[in-house]
Write a structure and sequence with these properties.
With 294 residues, the chain is of the alpha/beta class. The chain has twelve helices and ten strands. Bound molecules: adenosine-5'-diphosphate.
């Protein structure tokens, strides 16, 4: 890999229960992976497979029981001063982040992180306004609003702006659209794509929604019972529908349909994996059939 920003080597994490013995849980078992700078990866797997535990190592919230994790050149098990830098470089949006909005204005909420970084007022202001614009909440209209008056999707984008205002090089999102309605989800992903393209930030997405990860992620990592069982580009992973099912997952409906059509003898090119590509390929086939009949 050219320029990995996250590298784990033999990462194992065991949660220690206060009571000794069988209550120990190995949540991650010997995970070695690399994530390329500037790309978007998704960690997928059923509930309890270890996704949250894994990404909490990427910003130093958890430390390895054994093995190592390097993030943007920082050893997460290293000095505590390094871990403070790490928290700024690897920004994390937790599940249901709107629960953590507490200031009276959107501006104050987004400014919370940069203020703690002790930046100058003028720099804080620039970061807040830029972050609001990036998430599609124009600052002229939203900065002075009360966050509690906003829609669910807007609140979540305020929380995202709060993370972006710290100018992280890695953005970690744990199930970022859970609980949003269809419009809220679509808007969130539209702005996320824009942020990725404009800021060149590396995005690590935890999700169980295969359709969403198929449009966003350049690479998928599949976890099952704490182990990394498969990794690759979405189209090659989704082509292995039966294997995925063994791990409690299912490829998006379109990929399932394409697999069935291929199994049924239709010769669809390998690169067909999106709805548009499927339309084009099928339209092309119909023209040939129609011509054949004439
Ligand atoms: P996922 O994010 O894929 O749902 P998690 O990383 O949350 O998975 O959990 C992986 C495993 O570790 C699960 O069996 C879970 O019950 C266990 N686990 C998670 N957090 C703790 C904790 N704080 N203490 C003990 N066990 C935990």
């Amino acid at each position: 890999m050219k320029d990995p920003i996250i590298i784990t080597r033999h990462l194992t994490h065991t949660y220690q229960s206060k009571n000794a013995g069988p209550l120990q849980k190995t949540a991650l078992d010997d995970i070695s992976l690399e994530i390329e700078r500037g790309c978007c990866v998704a960690i997928i797997g059923v509930t309890g497979s270890g996704k949250s535990t894994l990404v909490q190592h990427f910003n130093g919230l958890l430390r390895p029981t054994s093995g190592s994790v390097m993030v943007d050149g920082i050893d997460v098990d290293g000095k505590s001063a390094d871990r403070i830098i790490l928290r700024q470089r690897a920004g994390m949006l937790f599940q249901f982040p709107e629960a953590q909005l507490f200031e009276r204005s959107v501006y104050a909420d987004v400014a919370f992180g940069p203020r703690r970084m002790r930046l100058k007022r003028k720099d804080i202001r620039k970061r807040v306004l830029d972050a609001l614009d990036l998430v599609g909440l124009p600052h002229e209209e939203f900065a002075m609003r009360n966050p509690f008056e906003l829609s669910g999707g807007q609140k979540r984008r305020v929380a995202l702006a709060g993370v972006l205002a710290m100018t992280p090089s890695i953005l970690i999102l744990d199930e970022p659209t859970v609980g949003l309605d269809a419009d809220g989800r679509e808007d969130f992903y539209t702005y996320l794509k824009r942020i990725k393209e404009q800021q060149g930030v590396t995005v690590v997405l935890v999700s169980h929604d295969m359709a969403e990860v198929s449009t966003l992620a350049d690479r998928l990592f599949v976890l099952y019972d704490g182990q990394l069982v498969m990794q690759g580009e979405p189209r090659s992973i989704f082509a292995r529908g039966e294997t995925l099912r063994a791990w409690g997952l299912a490829a998006p409906p379109l990929n399932e349909l394409l697999s069935l059509l291929r199994k049924g003898g239709m010769t669809l090119p390998d690169e067909v994996s999106t709805l548009d590509e499927a339309f084009d390929a099928l339209k092309g086939m119909r023209t040939i059939t129609e011509k054949g009949q004439v």
